Protein: D-beta-hydroxybutyrate dehydrogenase
Organism: Granulosicoccus antarcticus IMCC3135
Amino acid sequence: MSDLKTALVTGSTSGIGLGIAEALAAKGMNLVLNGLESADEIEPLRTRLEALSGGKVIYSSANLMDPAAIRELMQTAADTFGGVDILVNNAGMQFVSPVEDFPDDKWEAIMSLNLSAAFYTCKAAVPFMKQKQWGRIINIASAHALVASPFKSAYVAAKHGLLGLTKTLALEVAEQGVTVNAICPGYVWTPLVEKQIPDTAKARGMTEEEVIKDVLLAAQPNKQFTTIEQVTALALFLCSDDAQSMTGGAVSIDGGWTAH
Ligand code: NAD
């Protein structure tokens, strides 16, 4: 088995997860990448990150809405690397609709991906971290883990739940050198945000430009999108030994949104 640390970043083929995976690779560690794309599509990324890391980088297209697929993913990580030292639960999705029209299957999908998937990955990762007496779990939550916005019932409920899981697990592993934190970004310009603009425009009867100005950035007092690089830098700090005392926290990076 390798002496390098191993990180698993879920949903690491796009947006925030990709940024964090690249930054961890640059620190020199083994990586497990995950997303919905085929292995062929991700091969150029995998080889680039492997060259950057100096370790081994593997890719799994496990659909994290399926607990059996998550167990398989975690088993692959265990078989290849012995387990994971750093777990970043990042994969997530959004759907925007008034509650009365909210499709049941979208509710279930968001609960599975944005909340239950993190339970299953943590459950599998924690025994290895406890054995090593070191571990880092970072749950990419949202400002919506702390406050609500209309038409995002499933997302807000799942992210509040993810923060509850974060706090509970932090207490359970606090004496074992394992920290568990939630990063709570405001709006970050990624494909996930770009895709929700047309639906938000429809739900609110606005133009897409009005959604960006009056809905998305209206919530952020600094009137700026948070950047992937800023979220990545925070995640790297939480992975460092200097962050050993930070656990069970909801770390906001939202331009002042949750100060309201
Ligand atoms: P994104 O849409 O750019 O990327 C999502 C990633 O998740 C992709 O790699 C995709 O392949 C993967 N994915 C989607 N469904 C999956 C599934 N069923 N199984 C496995 N992988 C799956 O998203 P993003 O904007 O980078 O968001 C990442 C996380 O950050 C999400 O949890 C999101 O809720 C959170 N977040 C985003 C923002 C924002 O403004 N972008 C703000 C706060 C929180």
